[in-house]
Amino acid sequence: MSGKAITYNSNYPSVADLRLKAKKRIPKFAFEYLDGGCNEDTNLRKNTSEIREVELIPQYLTKHTGSSMKTKLFGEEYDAPFGVAPVGLQGLMWPKSPEILAKAAFEHNIPFCLSTVTTSSIETIAEITEGKAWFQLYHPSEDKVRDDIIHRAAAAEMPVLVILSDVPTFGYRPRDIRNGLAIPPKMTLRNMLQICGKPNWALRTLFNGQPNFETLQPYMPKGLDLAQLGKFMDKTFSGRLNEEKLNPFGICGKGSWS
To answer: Would you say residue 14 lies in a domain?
Structure first.
C-alpha cells in the first residue's frame, strides 16, 4: 500500500500457513464447516483455480511513481480491493470471531460484510466499525422479519446492503452431515472428542458461551433446543428471493443505500 511498509508475521507468511494453523487450533467439525463447500466442492475448486489464472502484465520500462492498492467503492476509499466476506455461524470457528474480524477490517480500512445468520448482531458490528460495515441480507420467508432486519441495518447506518440470492434449499454439505452440523444439528461423541483435543478453543468457547444467531434473537422463540433451532432456521429461510422482493429502497423508505 502506498506510503506504508508491509508488515507480516514471519510464522505465517502465506494464507496456506494460516489455514494450517487454523486446522490445528480448532475442532475438525468447525474447520470443515469453514473450509468445505457443497456437494463435491466443484465450485470451491473452480473459484480458487480462477483466481490463480489472473496474471499481472509487467511494464518494467514505464515510469513508476509508486504502488497503491487503494480502491474506491460505493463512494468510500478502501486501502485494498478486497474485504472480509459474510460467513454464517462464525462464532463456531472461534468465539467472537465476527467482532475480531470487524475490528481488524476497520483498523485496516477494508470492507467487512456481516451475515444475517452470523453470531454477532447488527448493532454490535455497527458500533465496532463506526457504521462502516456492510450488511448481507439472507432473505427471510416472512416479510415482517425481513423489513425489521433491514430497518435495523439502516438505523445502524450501514452503508451497503448485499442481497444474498441463494439456492431454493439448504446446500448439501457431506462434511457437515458427518460432523453433526446438518439441520437439525446434533452433538456426537466424535465432536466431543474433537473438542477435548482442542482445550484452548473449548475453554474460550465455554467462557464466552454457546454461539447464537444474535441478529435473529428478537424473532426466535425462547429456550429452543438444537432440534427446535434447526426447524426454526429451516422455516425462517425457506423463502425464495425473486424480482418483486428486490426492493430495499421501498422497504426502508430511503434511497441512500448502495
So the answer is: no
Q: Are 188 and 180 in contact (CB under 8 A)?
A: yes
Cα gap 180→188, rounded to integer Å: 7
Phi, psi of 218 (to 5 degrees): -65, -15
**Is residue 120 within 8 Å of residue 88, measured between CB atoms?**
no
C-alpha cell at 255: 434511497
Query: What is the domain range of residue 192?
Result: 28-39+67-240
C-alpha cell at 43: 465450485
Residue 239 pLDDT class (50, 70, 90 cuts):
low
226 in Cβ contact with 184 (< 8 Å):
yes
CA dist., res. 58 & res. 61, Å (int)? 9
Q: Nearest-CA neighbor of 97 among 78, 114, 116?
A: 114
**Count of domains observed in the chain:** 1
Distance (Å, whole) CA 183 – CA 189: 18
| Phi and psi torsions of 78, nearest 5° | -110, 160
Instruction: Say whether 6 sits in a helix, a strand or coil.
Output: coil
Give this prediction's pTM: 0.86
Q: Quick check: is 253 in a domain? A: no
Neighbours of 26 (CB within 10 A): 23
Cell triple for 45: 475448486
pLDDT tens digit string along 108-119?
999 999 999 999
Residue 75, in any domain of the structure: yes
